[in-house]
TrEMBL record:
Keywords of the record: Hydrolase
InterPro entries from the UniProt entry: AB_hydrolase_1, AB_hydrolase_fold
Keyword Hydrolase part of the UniProt annotation: yes
Gene Ontology MF annotations: hydrolase activity
Pfam families named among the record's database cross-references: Abhydrolase_6 (PF12697)
Protein name, as recorded: Alpha/beta fold hydrolase
Residue span(s) of domain AB hydrolase-1: 41-234
Species of origin: Deinococcus radiopugnans ATCC 19172
Amino acid sequence: MTIPGLSLPPLPDAERVSLAGAVGELGGYIWRQPGQAPAALLLHGWGQDALAMAGPARLLHGAGWQVLSMSQRGWRGSAGCDDYGYSGPADVGRMLAWFAAQPGVQAPPVLLGFSMGGLSALLTASRPGRPAGSVSHVVAVSAPTDLQAVYERTTLRLLRRCYDAVLTAAQWREGSPVTHVSGLQVPALLVVGTQDRICMPEVGRQYAAAAGAPLLEHADMGHSPNDAQWHAIIREVMAWTQEPASGRSRLAPDPSTG
Protein backbone atom coordinates (compact mmCIF):
# COMPACT_ATOMS: atom_id res chain seq x y z
CA MET A 1 0.00 0.00 0.00
CA THR A 2 1.24 3.47 -0.91
CA ILE A 3 0.29 6.20 1.56
CA PRO A 4 0.91 9.76 0.32
CA GLY A 5 3.29 11.58 2.63
CA LEU A 6 4.31 8.37 4.39
CA SER A 7 5.53 6.26 1.47
CA LEU A 8 8.71 6.89 -0.47
CA PRO A 9 8.10 8.35 -3.94
CA PRO A 10 9.05 6.33 -7.02
CA LEU A 11 12.37 7.05 -8.72
CA PRO A 12 12.97 6.51 -12.44
CA ASP A 13 16.35 4.82 -11.94
CA ALA A 14 15.81 2.76 -8.78
CA GLU A 15 13.51 0.07 -7.46
CA ARG A 16 11.55 0.67 -4.27
CA VAL A 17 12.05 -2.10 -1.72
CA SER A 18 10.36 -3.08 1.52
CA LEU A 19 11.51 -5.64 4.04
CA ALA A 20 10.36 -6.83 7.43
CA GLY A 21 11.74 -5.01 10.46
CA ALA A 22 11.30 -5.58 14.17
CA VAL A 23 8.42 -3.08 14.41
CA GLY A 24 7.11 -3.10 10.83
CA GLU A 25 8.32 -2.56 7.31
CA LEU A 26 11.62 -0.91 6.41
CA GLY A 27 11.56 0.88 3.07
CA GLY A 28 14.16 2.14 0.67
CA TYR A 29 15.59 2.01 -2.83
CA ILE A 30 17.96 -0.32 -4.63
CA TRP A 31 20.08 0.51 -7.65
CA ARG A 32 21.00 -2.81 -9.26
CA GLN A 33 23.77 -3.91 -11.61
CA PRO A 34 23.26 -6.67 -14.20
CA GLY A 35 26.08 -8.82 -12.80
CA GLN A 36 28.39 -9.29 -9.85
CA ALA A 37 29.49 -5.98 -8.36
CA PRO A 38 30.72 -4.44 -5.11
CA ALA A 39 27.94 -3.22 -2.86
CA ALA A 40 27.15 -0.40 -0.44
CA LEU A 41 24.32 0.22 2.03
CA LEU A 42 23.61 3.92 2.63
CA LEU A 43 21.96 5.43 5.72
CA HIS A 44 20.55 8.98 5.92
CA GLY A 45 20.68 11.63 8.62
CA TRP A 46 18.07 12.82 11.13
CA GLY A 47 15.06 14.47 9.50
CA GLN A 48 15.73 12.72 6.18
CA ASP A 49 14.83 9.43 4.53
CA ALA A 50 16.24 7.06 1.93
CA LEU A 51 15.66 9.60 -0.85
CA ALA A 52 18.23 11.96 0.72
CA MET A 53 21.05 9.56 -0.15
CA ALA A 54 20.08 9.20 -3.81
CA GLY A 55 22.93 11.51 -4.86
CA PRO A 56 25.80 9.44 -3.44
CA ALA A 57 23.90 6.27 -4.36
CA ARG A 58 23.86 7.31 -8.01
CA LEU A 59 27.58 8.13 -7.91
CA LEU A 60 28.36 4.64 -6.64
CA HIS A 61 25.92 3.01 -9.06
CA GLY A 62 27.42 4.94 -11.96
CA ALA A 63 30.80 3.49 -10.96
CA GLY A 64 29.44 -0.05 -11.17
CA TRP A 65 28.26 -0.71 -7.61
CA GLN A 66 25.07 -2.31 -6.32
CA VAL A 67 23.56 0.25 -3.93
CA LEU A 68 20.83 0.08 -1.29
CA SER A 69 19.59 3.26 0.43
CA MET A 70 17.23 2.62 3.35
CA SER A 71 15.02 4.78 5.54
CA GLN A 72 15.80 4.37 9.21
CA ARG A 73 13.13 3.54 11.77
CA GLY A 74 10.43 6.20 12.06
CA TRP A 75 11.32 8.13 8.90
CA ARG A 76 9.37 8.21 5.64
CA GLY A 77 9.11 4.72 4.22
CA SER A 78 9.91 2.87 7.46
CA ALA A 79 7.65 2.02 10.38
CA GLY A 80 8.26 2.62 14.06
CA CYS A 81 9.35 5.58 16.15
CA ASP A 82 12.64 7.40 15.62
CA ASP A 83 15.10 6.75 18.46
CA TYR A 84 18.13 8.53 16.97
CA GLY A 85 19.85 5.37 15.75
CA TYR A 86 19.66 3.42 19.02
CA SER A 87 17.80 0.59 17.27
CA GLY A 88 20.08 0.98 14.25
CA PRO A 89 22.12 -2.21 14.74
CA ALA A 90 19.02 -4.42 14.81
CA ASP A 91 17.38 -2.75 11.81
CA VAL A 92 20.60 -2.44 9.82
CA GLY A 93 21.32 -6.10 10.49
CA ARG A 94 18.07 -6.97 8.72
CA MET A 95 18.92 -4.63 5.86
CA LEU A 96 22.35 -6.21 5.45
CA ALA A 97 20.96 -9.75 5.49
CA TRP A 98 18.38 -8.88 2.82
CA PHE A 99 20.95 -7.04 0.70
CA ALA A 100 23.51 -9.85 0.87
CA ALA A 101 20.92 -12.26 -0.53
CA GLN A 102 20.23 -10.15 -3.63
CA PRO A 103 21.56 -11.32 -7.01
CA GLY A 104 24.95 -9.92 -7.95
CA VAL A 105 25.80 -8.46 -4.54
CA GLN A 106 29.40 -9.14 -3.63
CA ALA A 107 28.92 -9.50 0.12
CA PRO A 108 29.85 -8.15 2.53
CA PRO A 109 28.91 -4.60 1.55
CA VAL A 110 30.38 -1.27 2.58
CA LEU A 111 28.21 0.53 5.15
CA LEU A 112 28.10 4.31 4.65
CA GLY A 113 26.10 6.70 6.81
CA PHE A 114 25.64 10.45 6.97
CA SER A 115 25.17 12.20 10.35
CA MET A 116 22.73 10.03 12.36
CA GLY A 117 23.24 7.40 9.67
CA GLY A 118 26.96 7.46 10.44
CA LEU A 119 26.14 6.90 14.11
CA SER A 120 23.96 3.91 13.16
CA ALA A 121 26.67 2.55 10.88
CA LEU A 122 29.37 2.74 13.56
CA LEU A 123 27.10 1.23 16.20
CA THR A 124 26.25 -1.62 13.82
CA ALA A 125 29.94 -2.29 13.18
CA SER A 126 31.04 -2.14 16.81
CA ARG A 127 28.28 -3.06 19.25
CA PRO A 128 28.11 -6.70 20.45
CA GLY A 129 25.98 -9.07 18.39
CA ARG A 130 27.02 -8.07 14.88
CA PRO A 131 27.22 -11.18 12.66
CA ALA A 132 30.83 -11.80 11.64
CA GLY A 133 31.56 -10.80 8.07
CA SER A 134 28.34 -8.79 7.58
CA VAL A 135 30.21 -5.56 6.70
CA SER A 136 33.52 -5.07 4.89
CA HIS A 137 34.09 -1.37 5.72
CA VAL A 138 32.22 1.43 7.46
CA VAL A 139 32.21 5.11 6.45
CA ALA A 140 30.81 7.79 8.77
CA VAL A 141 30.26 11.28 7.34
CA SER A 142 29.65 14.13 9.84
CA ALA A 143 28.68 11.56 12.45
CA PRO A 144 27.80 12.39 16.09
CA THR A 145 30.17 9.82 17.57
CA ASP A 146 29.90 11.20 21.14
CA LEU A 147 26.37 12.36 21.92
CA GLN A 148 27.25 14.32 25.05
CA ALA A 149 30.09 16.15 23.32
CA VAL A 150 27.89 17.00 20.34
CA TYR A 151 25.14 18.27 22.66
CA GLU A 152 27.56 20.52 24.52
CA ARG A 153 29.29 21.95 21.44
CA THR A 154 26.61 22.19 18.73
CA THR A 155 25.30 25.60 17.69
CA LEU A 156 21.97 24.07 16.58
CA ARG A 157 19.41 24.48 19.36
CA LEU A 158 17.00 22.19 17.50
CA LEU A 159 19.49 19.34 17.88
CA ARG A 160 19.66 19.89 21.64
CA ARG A 161 15.86 19.84 21.83
CA CYS A 162 15.84 16.62 19.78
CA TYR A 163 18.34 14.99 22.12
CA ASP A 164 16.39 16.15 25.19
CA ALA A 165 13.17 14.69 23.76
CA VAL A 166 14.46 11.46 22.25
CA LEU A 167 17.52 10.17 24.07
CA THR A 168 17.04 7.92 27.08
CA ALA A 169 19.32 8.17 30.11
CA ALA A 170 21.25 5.08 29.02
CA GLN A 171 21.44 6.17 25.40
CA TRP A 172 23.78 9.08 26.02
CA ARG A 173 26.51 6.52 26.68
CA GLU A 174 25.31 3.30 25.03
CA GLY A 175 24.12 5.12 21.91
CA SER A 176 27.46 6.87 21.41
CA PRO A 177 29.79 5.05 18.99
CA VAL A 178 32.84 6.19 20.98
CA THR A 179 31.66 4.00 23.89
CA HIS A 180 32.01 0.92 21.69
CA VAL A 181 35.10 1.90 19.71
CA SER A 182 37.09 -1.03 21.11
CA GLY A 183 34.58 -3.38 19.48
CA LEU A 184 35.16 -2.01 15.99
CA GLN A 185 36.50 -4.95 13.99
CA VAL A 186 36.28 -3.62 10.43
CA PRO A 187 38.13 -0.75 8.71
CA ALA A 188 36.44 2.59 9.36
CA LEU A 189 36.78 5.96 7.63
CA LEU A 190 35.69 9.17 9.36
CA VAL A 191 34.77 12.17 7.20
CA VAL A 192 34.43 15.63 8.77
CA GLY A 193 33.89 19.17 7.55
CA THR A 194 36.01 21.78 9.26
CA GLN A 195 33.09 24.26 8.99
CA ASP A 196 30.58 21.90 10.62
CA ARG A 197 28.87 23.68 13.50
CA ILE A 198 26.20 21.03 14.06
CA CYS A 199 28.57 18.17 14.79
CA MET A 200 31.91 19.80 15.50
CA PRO A 201 34.83 18.26 13.57
CA GLU A 202 36.85 17.61 16.72
CA VAL A 203 34.24 15.00 17.73
CA GLY A 204 35.00 12.99 14.59
CA ARG A 205 38.72 13.56 15.01
CA GLN A 206 38.61 12.18 18.53
CA TYR A 207 36.77 9.05 17.39
CA ALA A 208 39.21 8.49 14.53
CA ALA A 209 42.13 8.80 16.94
CA ALA A 210 40.55 6.36 19.40
CA ALA A 211 39.79 3.87 16.62
CA GLY A 212 43.11 4.28 14.83
CA ALA A 213 41.01 5.02 11.76
CA PRO A 214 41.80 7.23 8.76
CA LEU A 215 40.31 10.72 8.76
CA LEU A 216 39.19 12.66 5.70
CA GLU A 217 38.74 16.41 6.29
CA HIS A 218 37.18 18.94 3.92
CA ALA A 219 38.21 22.50 4.67
CA ASP A 220 35.10 24.18 3.23
CA MET A 221 32.50 21.58 4.21
CA GLY A 222 29.79 22.24 6.76
CA HIS A 223 27.60 19.49 8.16
CA SER A 224 26.08 18.38 4.85
CA PRO A 225 28.36 17.74 1.87
CA ASN A 226 27.48 19.56 -1.34
CA ASP A 227 27.51 17.77 -4.69
CA ALA A 228 31.22 18.37 -5.31
CA GLN A 229 32.10 17.18 -1.82
CA TRP A 230 30.01 14.03 -2.22
CA HIS A 231 31.86 13.36 -5.48
CA ALA A 232 35.19 13.66 -3.64
CA ILE A 233 34.00 11.53 -0.72
CA ILE A 234 32.66 8.75 -2.92
CA ARG A 235 35.81 8.79 -5.04
CA GLU A 236 37.90 8.40 -1.89
CA VAL A 237 35.64 5.68 -0.50
CA MET A 238 35.95 3.63 -3.66
CA ALA A 239 39.74 3.97 -3.68
CA TRP A 240 40.06 3.30 0.06
CA THR A 241 37.92 0.17 0.07
CA GLN A 242 40.06 -1.34 -2.70
CA GLU A 243 43.30 -0.92 -0.74
CA PRO A 244 44.73 -4.16 0.68
CA ALA A 245 44.82 -2.85 4.26
CA SER A 246 42.32 0.05 4.04
CA GLY A 247 44.16 1.72 6.84
CA ARG A 248 45.96 4.92 5.93
CA SER A 249 46.28 7.05 9.03
CA ARG A 250 45.10 10.23 7.34
CA LEU A 251 43.58 11.05 3.98
CA ALA A 252 43.97 14.37 2.23
CA PRO A 253 40.87 15.78 0.47
CA ASP A 254 40.97 16.93 -3.10
CA PRO A 255 41.83 20.65 -2.76
CA SER A 256 39.74 21.47 -5.82
CA THR A 257 36.55 20.43 -4.02
CA GLY A 258 37.10 22.10 -0.65
